[in-house]
Structure formats: structure tokens, C-alpha cells
Amino acid sequence: MTTLSAPETPMGTRLRPITMAIMAMGGEGGGVLSDWTVTLAEENGYYAQSTSVPGVAQRTGATIYYVELFPKESHGLRNPEPILGTMPTPGEVDIVVASELMEGGRAISRGFVTPERTTLISSTSRTYSMSERTAVGDGRVDSQGIIDAAIVCSTKFVRGDFSKIADDSRSVISAVLFGALAGADVLPFSRAQFEDAIRAGGKGVNTSLKAFDGGYSSPVASMKPPVNLSIGMRPPAAELPSDGSPDPALVAQATANPASLVGAKLQVQVERIAAEFPPAARYMLVHGIKRTTEYQDVKYANEYLDRVASLLPYETDFDGDAKLTVEAARFTALWMTYEDTTRVAFHKVRGRRFQRVHKEAQVAENQIMQVHEYLHPQMEEISDTLPTALGRWFLNSRLMNKIVYRITHRGIKIATT
Amino acid sequence: MARLKPIRRRSLRFGQEQERIDNWLATTRLYAPNDYNLALQIIECQQVVKGYGETHANGMKNFNKLMGAIPNLAQQGDPGAQLLRLRKAALADENGIALDLALAE
Fold first, then answer.
1. Which of A22, A58, A76, B39 has the fewest Cβ atoms surrounding its Cβ within 10 A?
2. What percent of chain B has pLDDT above 90?
3. Which residues lie below 8 Å from residue A363, measured CB to CB, with a gap of 6+?
4. Can you tell me the distance from the alpha carbon of A183 to that of A181, in angstroms, rounded to the nearest whole number?
5. Which residues in chain A touch residue B91, judged by CB atoms under 8 angstroms apart?
């Protein structure tokens, strides 16, 4: 292991600081992580300085924290107080910590990660970026590509699903990353010293220490065995977070015993799925009836099954992949649950959403949260929800168009709490 | 607004969407007996329609272009692969520029 300790570099002639960049999104505790690192360094004989450059909202960029550490003494002699840098410089960063895989990738493309110098510590979890979300098709970036690049571009690539470890220990990702930093064995401090820095912070110490422990063991897990890289890399399926494909265990359960996945209300529908449809399509169909029922009612789920069943005579691969039926089950369900004003409103007043907003806004027990919705309805969105004849009249009426425009063109605010 | 579920069935939009779904499945059944892959690709075309408001309207426009191209494609070799190619073009941008180019080929 190459522990970075400035005075003992092989060159030995020039002292340089240990440099570390942290890329984290808002709310992930990047600031806490850099504070811990500063405490850790200052308590153990180092000068430390940290800076941050904030990113922007809506997941377009992360905040970059930058920390430089410099020993107060070397070879028993006191070093003069250094002037430390305030920004990471490409090619001059020893450690890059990223809370999310794409941020690790961005650090690589910005030149912060260099093969001869940088240890990259990155979570393999993904938070999709705006450009990935707004793409018409599937805009997701291939995670394996980033991982492959990271292996090539760094001295050492420490990785793991740190987001999951954080969730499992009910902590935040910063504590897991701090653990991974300790476990990566690149800073000249002991595990106990790392843990003391967390204790010095004084907040949520026990959960943070638990998350720290989860992170600490991850470098070993991701680097083993260290000699042979091709063996060291685990197969993509085990390494990557879920790509949205269903849990195989659930698929097996749906295929063998679809009734176990739905409530009493849909038992008749499930029996029909088991009796009439190809085994390979059962999983999708179970989801389809649940989705259409939630969207409208059980009758609508029956209509859904009728529609998919209309293609059954043409299913020539009934006992195989039954692709036509599977895909028809998928896309008919999606289309039948098209996004209309009613559905969007349903999602807006759902309990789950308020819980999420509560959490994101970090509202305390004794605080009251108010959510204001910003609406900008268009003519069609109003006429869509009206009964057919009325809706058509509404849409074609010049007077109504004018009135709606007057009311809505500036947007409307409604409090939903 | 969320309480509108009971009257959704009678809404203008609901009637339109149900008709579109049935037309799409009818088209699929029309080609399915002779060409399984083409039928599958017709089903897959649904993914160009998504979202709401303007995004949905643009998606629907592209979807209709794809459906309109099928009778012609069916006369040629490997219509399923051709439709797949057009769908990929439709997914390339929201305004359907790539699709129009692909259709012009």
C-alpha cells in the first residue's frame, strides 16, 4: 500500500501537500466529510485547509470540496507554515472522493484523476443527471463504461455501493466515504484517528461510526485480489446498482405463483393470467393489472387483460420468451395509464410525496411545512378532464380560451398542505 | 383534481386514448399473422409516446408518422428491422427531425 506521506516521498527533496477533492451533491454531507478530514489532520500534526465551490441545483453538477494537508513537522524539524491551494489542479490531486459514479466520471474527464497519482474513491450508485432524465429515449449513461475508465485512469479505484451502505446503516453517504478513505490506506492516519474525528464532530456519532465501518471494509472488497485486475473486477451484475431490470426472484415468484403478489381484489385477474397467458409474460401482466387498477379500477384491469389477450392467437413462442405478449403487456399498461391531469394530481397529493419533500427539506418534528404548487395549465389539460362533449366545446370556444388564458398565463399557485 | 377518477372514463382525453390504443393493437393484429417481428416492432413503437403536455403531443406526432409508414414498409424486405430503425430515429430528438430524415431516405 502506498501511504501518502509528504515528507517521505521517494524523491524526498521537495515537500508537497497531500491534495484531496470531494465531489458530492447537495445534502450528501460533502461539507461534513471535508470538516472531518480537516479535524483529522489538525489533530494529528498537519496543517489543513478546505474550500468549496458549489454546484447548481436540479442535479446538474456537484459541489467540489477541496482539502490540502501539510505536515507541521518532518524529520523532527518544524516546517514553515505553508501557503495552501484553494482549488484542485488537473494532474495534481492525490485523492478524489465521489459520492456518485457519474461525479467520479466527471472528475476523470476534468483531469483530476491521473493514473500515476490519484486514488479514486467512488460510489457506484447513480443519481441520474438532468440530461439523462430529459432524453426522449433511454438517456442513461453506461455505468460499466465509467467503471472501466476509472480503473484505467487511477492508481487505485476504491468502489462500492456506498449509497446502499449509508441507507442500511441509516446514515449519510459522507460517513461511508470517510470510512472508505480510511480503508483505502492513503492518508497517514490510523483508523482510530479517523474515528476520533467523527466523535469530535459530535453529531449522530453512533450511526456515523456504523456507516464508517461499512465503508472501511469496502476497499478490501473492491480490490481483492489486488494482483490480478481481471479477477479483481467483479462481474457487472454484482457490481452495478440495479439498472431497472426486475429482481429475478420476483419474476420467478410471479411466474410460479402470481397470486401471491396481489391483494384479494385482483385474485380473479391473476387466475386468468395464470390460465391464459404465456408463463414468461406473467410478471409483466401482474404489474399491468396493478398499475391499471391503481390508475382507474378493477374493470379497467379487465379491459387491459382483454387487450393483451387479443394478441394471444399470434403468439408463436408461447412457452418460450413470448416476446410479443410480454412487450404488449408492458406497453399496453403504459399507454392505458397515460399521464393526465388526474394522475399528476394523484401523485402530487400522495402521502409518499409529502414524506419525501419533508425529508428533502429536512423539516423537524416541531416545524410546519407548506408546499406551494406552481401550475401553468394549458387549454388541453383542462378540456381533457371534462366530459367528452363539454371538453370538445371548451376546446373550440374562443371565449373559453380567452378566459383560461387570462387566468392561467401567469401561472397559478396552490398550497397543497 | 385527484378526485376526478370517477369521471375520468367520460372525459374527452380518455375516449381519445382508448381509441388510439385499440387502433394500435388492431394494426398489430393486422400484421401479426404474417410477420411476428413486425408485430413486435409495432408494439415497441409505443415508447415514443411519453410524458404530458407538449412532450406527449410531439411523441404522438412521431408515433403517427411511424404508423403511417408501416403499409409502405410491409411491401419491402424485413419491415420489422426497418420500423426499428425509424423508431430509433424518432427517439433521437423530440421534434422528430431525425425521424423525418430517416423517412425521407
1. A76
2. 54
3. A369
4. 5
5. 136-137
The contacts of residue A243 (CB under 8 Å, 6+ apart) are A140, A143
Q: Which three cell numbers stand for residue A270?
A: 391473476
Cβ of residue B46 closer than 8 Å to a chain A Cβ: yes
Phi then psi for A106, rounded to 5 degrees?
Answer: -65, -40
C-alpha cell at A30: 460533502
| Residues of chain B with C-beta less than 8 angstroms from the C-beta of A137 | 47, 88, 91-92
Nearest CA distance, A391 vs chain B (angstrom): 6
Which residues on chain B are in Cβ contact (under 8 Å) with A332?
A: 21, 25, 46
Q: A297-304 long-range CB contacts below 8 Å, 24 or more apart?
A: A297/B5, A298/A265, A298/A266, A298/A269, A300/A336, A301/A266, A301/A269, A302/A269, A303/A336, A304/A332, A304/A333, A304/A336
State whether B36 and A334 contact (CB < 8 Å): no
CB < 8 Å to B29, chain A:
310-311, 314
Instruction: Tell me which amino acid residue A273 is.
Output: I
> What string of DSSP letters covers A337-381?
T---HHHHHHHHS-HHHHHHHHHHTT--TT-----EEEE---HHH
In the beta sheet, which residues pair with residue A97?
A22, A121
Q: Phi/psi class of residue A96: alpha, beta or left (left: φ > 0; alpha: ψ in -120 to 50)?
A: beta
A391/B13 CB distance under 8 A? yes
Cα separation, A372 vs A388, in Å, equals 31
Quote the cell numbers at residue A385: 378532464
Pick B2's closest partner by Cβ from A349, A380, A392.
A349
pLDDT of A194 reads 93
pLDDT, one tens digit for every residue, chain A (417 residues): 445 544 444 444 467 899 999 988 877 788 889 999 999 999 999 999 999 887 655 455 678 899 999 999 888 888 888 888 888 888 899 999 998 888 888 888 888 998 889 999 998 887 777 667 766 667 777 778 888 888 888 888 888 888 888 888 888 889 999 999 998 888 999 999 999 999 998 878 888 999 999 899 876 555 543 333 333 333 333 333 344 566 677 777 777 777 777 777 888 999 999 999 999 999 999 999 999 998 899 999 999 999 999 999 999 999 999 999 999 999 999 999 988 777 776 666 666 666 766 666 666 666 776 766 666 666 666 666 666 666 666 666 777 667 766 666 666 666 666
Residue B56 contacts A where some CB pair is shorter than 8 Å: yes
User: Which of A137, A336, A344 shows the shortest C-beta gap to B21?
Assistant: A336
Residue B63 C-alpha, separation from nearest chain A C-alpha, in angstroms: 12
A364: its cell numbers: 423537524
Task: Please name the residues between 112 and 171 in chain A that touch chain B, using a CB distance below 8 Å.
Answer: 136-137
Q: What are phi and psi of A380, to 5 degrees?
A: -65, -35
Question: What would you report as the CA-atom Rg of chain B, rounded to the nearest whole angstrom?
Answer: 15
